[in-house]
Fold this sequence. Notes:
By secondary structure, this protein is of the alpha/beta class. It has helices at about 20-35, 100-110, 120-135, 160-180, 195-200, 215-230, 265-275, 300-315, 335-340, 350-360; strands spanning about 10-15, 40-45, 55-60, 85-90, 95-100, 115-120, 140, 180-185, 205-210, 235-240, 250-255, 265, 280-285, 325-330, 330-335. The chain has 10 helices and 15 strands. Strand 4 and strand 5 form a beta hairpin. It is elongated and about 70 Å long.
Amino acid sequence: MQVHQHKRIAVVNGGGDCPGLNAVIRAVVKTAILRYGWEVWGSEDSFDGLIKPGKLIPMTLETVRGILPRGGTILGTTNRGNPFRYPERNERGEIVFQDYSERVIQKVKEMNLDAMVLIGGDGTLTIGQRFCERGLPIVGVPKTIDQDLLATETTFGFDTALKTVTESLDMIHTTAESHERVMVIEVMGRNAGWIALEAGIAGGADIILIPEIPFRVEKLVEKIEARRVAGRPFSIVVVSEGATPVGGSQIYREKGIEDPFGKLGGIGAIVAGMLGSRVQLETRVVVLGHLQRGGSPTAFDRLLGTRFGVAAVDLIAKNQFGRMVALDDQKITSVTIAEAIARQRLVNPQGEIVQAARAIGICFGD
């Protein structure tokens, strides 16, 4: 039996929840304990376990029993817990920001942690890179339903979100046809149109609007009216939350303490309003919102999350820090975290998937 150096590691997830997170946590814990005989700790609510007392908990095989099919994360998460800019209320009830990065570093030292597995998207991994530059041993795992991390072929969570949106479009399709309506469905994705594009094709959309291809409302009207005249008096319009009209800008809403400009969203209602005054059909808008983040992960996301978790622990065993596990040509590999967060993976307007959509008559509004 091979003997490995004993280590104590922590697993941290940050940002929005995502189907498959529990698969990664489970794989990290089981690999660390069963393959290497290490101790594992879990940081509750992102970095809070390293900032606040009582929120860094021991992880055992029993802790992760039965969590593989569960959505969300057993550790909890937040997108408002940046240790370098941590929001708190002062005695006057005002939000002020504190730099608790040194507190995190000291906690790692106090706990004798040899490494951290950090699961997150570009925001969380950017925080991780800052800690790497200050000497913390971190291995990253990519997590986002938006599939906008360039350094990996895909991320866990995307497949489940894609399935959820496609099934929603199937259901919306029947009511759109029954009532002869234009149904505008707003989906997530931030600056990348992958969810809208792929679910739109799979769900039989007539129009797909994505951030990478600015649209003209006149083109949408032409498409909808052509369908009506041809005896198809209904249309399905899938709109990515980051989509914009030609010459326009992205729509933000729900300003928050970590979002001075607000969160992307609201373009669906604007598109529905534009169409409502121009087409001879009733127009309705559906915002799928956080429905896309929930539910039991697909088999693909469970498998990918498991492979990522195992690979992350193996990187720690090799003392290869400052790296993120990734999928390349269906094989697990790794890249530097700095490389992973350098650029976003965006839809190529001239790419094969967009061209396939155009070939079957889908309109992009350009």
